[in-house]
Structures are given as structure tokens and as C-alpha cells.
Write a structure and sequence with these properties.
The chain is α/β, with parallel strands linked by helices. Helices cover 42% and strands 11% of the residues. The termini are far apart.
Length: 294
């Protein structure tokens, strides 16, 4: 696990999801993986503090994956060491009536991170080329001009959406947003076991919905859509990383390690210089406080 590097998971050429393993083979125990995550999590937290003070960049982390792929727990465990003021999580559900009055990217634009902060997208703008592609009837809720029924969707519709997403990510990257996109690569069998676990454990029953089974029937359709979305939109300024997700502990560490290794490359992110006037008088301020004059 110590040798985990971004290049092992980045999509820099066309990929076939079926050819990519959903689990890494290691001899580490569950506790080993927890310890590794804790260590890199502390390093990330310190980096975030410096980035907050530097106030020039924001970081966007997009998490995508099939149901039960572990997005929620990954957020909880991977970013647990962060100062709460430095990270904001957005969980994107089906768009509200208000959000449907705007274009599909609007709600994602307004959720982008402020300078100095992380924004975590639990699901993201990619739902608009995944869920709506597998279930094109949902597009009718968007009130798209000249689209009254599914048959009205133009042949080049999805290619245009991919182009719009590429332009969106190019725009934000050129304006100081560092973009990470992670696909949590879960096997169909592991999803079956996790759904069963939700049903067998009473305290997990609330997580289960009958729609989980109907969506599972569309597994192959989703994989085709994920594969094309990843291949169409993985670019140097906004790369995709495919993370094996059958082992949750492993996936959390890989995500944290990738972010850490990539953020190290931003050598211009440093603490701001102290105002010369303050720096010159630090000794005096210390003496006043030590003498309890104030």
C-alpha cells in the first residue's frame, strides 16, 4: 500500500471497465489499512490548512460509483482530520423543482469550493450523463427546448453534453479549482453482498430501498454509460481515477493517497508572508502579553 501512486489509477488512455480489477491483492490487515489512512489523512489536513491561508486555490473532489460503492463512508473517514471550516460536502439528489428551472450545471456551479477550501461532490454533474442516459425519460423534467418526448432527443445530444462538461471543468481548472474525479469501481457480486447486509442488519435497513433492485437490473447499462463518460472526459486538468472499491478500507486509502501525492505538486501553495510591520514588532507583542499588560 505504501507504493500507491496516482499513475496506477489515472485514466490517461481509453479504458474498458471489465478489464480493471475491483480489488487490490495485498497482505495488509484491516488495521494496517486504517493506520495508513490515518497517517495520510493527517498530512492532507495540514496541507489544507496551508491552502486555506494561501487562499488561491480550491479543490473539487467528485465521487461517483454504483449504489453501495462506499461514497458516504469514504467521505466520513478520509476527510475526518480536516478542519470543518475547510471542507464542504454536497450530496446531489434528483434535482429539485427550483434547480430544474436552470440548466443542469447550475446547481454544481453554485456548489464549487471557495478559494482555500475543499468541496466534495457525493455524486456530481456526471449524473447528467449517467442516470439520465440510462433513464432518458428523466430528461423531460429539464424542459429542454424542442424535447417533448424521449424520441425528440437529438442523436448528438450526449456528445454535446460531454463537450459542455469538458468546457465546465476546463473553465474552473483555469480559474484555480484543482479537480479530482474518482470512480469507485465495485463488482456486481460485492454490491449484492452489501445490499444483503443492509437487509440482514436491522440498524442498516433504513439504507435499503426497493429501487436498489430495479437499478441493479440496469447494471450493464450503467457500466456502458460510466465507461463512455470516463473515456470522454478524463483530461490532464480534470483526470478520472478508477479506484478498486470491493474493499472499503483500501479504497479510502487510495483516494487519500492520490489527493496527497497530487497536491504535493503545487509547490506554490505556501503560507502567506507576514506583514513586515507585524513581523518587526513580534518581540514587543510577546513582551506585552508575557507581562500581562493587555
Amino acid at each position: 500500500m505504501k507504493n500507491v501512486m496516482p499513475g496506477d489509477f489515472i485514466v490517461d488512455r481509453p479504458v474498458v471497465l471489465a478489464d480493471i480489477p475491483t480489488r487490490m491483492e495485498t497482505d495488509l490487515t484491516k488495521q494496517d489499512k486504517k493506520n495508513a489512512l490515518k497517517k495520510v489523512g493527517k498530512k492532507l489536513s495540514k496541507m489544507q490548512d496551508v491552502m486555506y491561508a494561501h487562499n488561491r486555490y480550491g479543490v473539487l473532489v467528485c465521487l461517483q460509483g454504483m449504489d453501495t460503492s462506499g461514497k458516504d463512508s469514504l467521505i466520513r473517514e478520509t476527510f475526518s482530520k480536516f478542519n470543518p471550516r475547510g471542507v464542504v460536502v454536497h450530496s446531489f439528489k434528483p434535482p429539485t423543482s427550483k434547480e430544474l428551472q436552470y440548466d443542469y450545471l447550475w446547481r454544481h456551479y453554485v456548489a464549487l469550493p471557495m478559494k482555500g477550501k475543499y468541496a466534495i461532490f457525493n455524486r456530481s454533474h456526471y449524473e447528467n450523463v449517467l442516470v439520465t442516459r440510462v433513464n432518458p425519460q428523466y430528461l423531460l423534467n429539464e424542459n429542454i427546448p424542442r424535447v417533448e418526448k424521449v424520441e425528440d432527443i437529438p442523436a448528438d445530444f450526449w456528445e454535446r453534453r460531454f463537450e459542455q462538461i469538458r468546457n465546465f471543468e476546463k473553465h474552473i481548472a483555469e480559474n484555480g479549482i484543482i479537480v479530482f474525479k474518482f470512480f469507485l469501481h465495485l463488482s456486481k457480486e460485492e454490491q449484492r453482498l452489501r445490499l444483503l447486509r443492509r437487509l440482514r442488519k436491522e440498524n442498516k435497513n433504513w439504507k435499503f430501498a426497493p429501487s436498489d433492485l430495479s437499478e441493479r437490473k440496469l447494471w450493464d447499462d450503467y457500466w456502458v454509460s460510466y465507461q463512455e463518460a470516463i473515456n470522454q472526459t478524463s483530461l490532464p486538468h480534470a483526470p478520472w481515477y478508477i479506484v478498486p472499491a470491493d474493499d472499503k478500507q483500501e479504497a479510502r486509502y487510495i483516494v487519500a493517497k492520490i489527493i496527497y501525492e497530487e497536491m504535493k505538486k503545487y509547490t506554490d501553495i505556501v503560507e502567506p508572508n507576514l506583514d513586515p510591520g507585524i513581523k518587526e514588532n513580534i518581540h514587543m507583542y510577546k513582551e506585552k502579553l508575557s507581562a500581562r499588560e493587555l
